[in-house]
Write a structure and sequence with these properties.
The chain is mainly α. It is about 80% helix and about 0% strand. The longest helix is centred in the middle third of the chain and has 42 residues.
Length: about 130
Amino acid sequence: RKPPQISYVLENVGSVARDHLANERTWLAYVRTSLAIAAMGVAIVQLFTIAPSNRAVSHKKYSARPLGATIVIVAVGVLGIGMSVYRYFKIQKAMTQGIFPVARGTIIVITAVLASLAAVIFAILVA
């Protein structure tokens, strides 16, 4: 079995270059989205840190740091690094073989992660 190649050099026939550039743009979109979600986690921590001290806010203030840290870790770890790098190399390898796998599993995982984060944030804000 051959070890994986570090880089590919492909002949630019048809839409090869365009397809690979589109794959890179998709990877950058994953990274941009993960950074935006991470910024939201930091914003939640800051929102409750500077909130006035009263009894209604103290419960939310207590859970703001763990929630914000969890959002940042999920955003950067799962979406930014895990899913995007996995998807990028999977598509790159598939395109060199002349096939293109659809993103069904990736979409389901990302949707489930984001929906659960939104539900937890909503529950904490409403409580």
